[in-house]
């Protein structure tokens, strides 16, 4: 009977050792996964902060800059065409309303004579 108990105790001891090793390995692999995930997150943050713009972003920025330059060129070109084809200047209310005005004295007697 003691031999049977001894065998059971040895078997249980080996089973518990194997179980403890399995738990330790699982905990170690879990810890390693957490460390790897943390490292991956740090690497992603660094890459986002330090990486250059994507090709799409570069293209969009270039198109935006070109359209600004083009619109400015178009405005300058239209202004030059207008001034080149028309020697007169467009109407300016502030300047044109007072331009060429002279003080005239109104004399009622002279006006009635014609």
From TrEMBL:
Keyword Signal: yes
Biased composition (Basic and acidic residues): 73-96
Alphabetical list of InterPro entries matching this protein: DUF3752
Alphabetic keyword roster: Signal
Signal peptide start and end residues: 1-18
Region annotated Disordered, chain positions: 53-96
Pfam short name (any one): DUF3752
Domain DUF3752: 15-111
Protein name: DUF3752 domain-containing protein
Organism: Artemisia annua
Lineage: Eukaryota, Viridiplantae, Streptophyta, Embryophyta, Tracheophyta
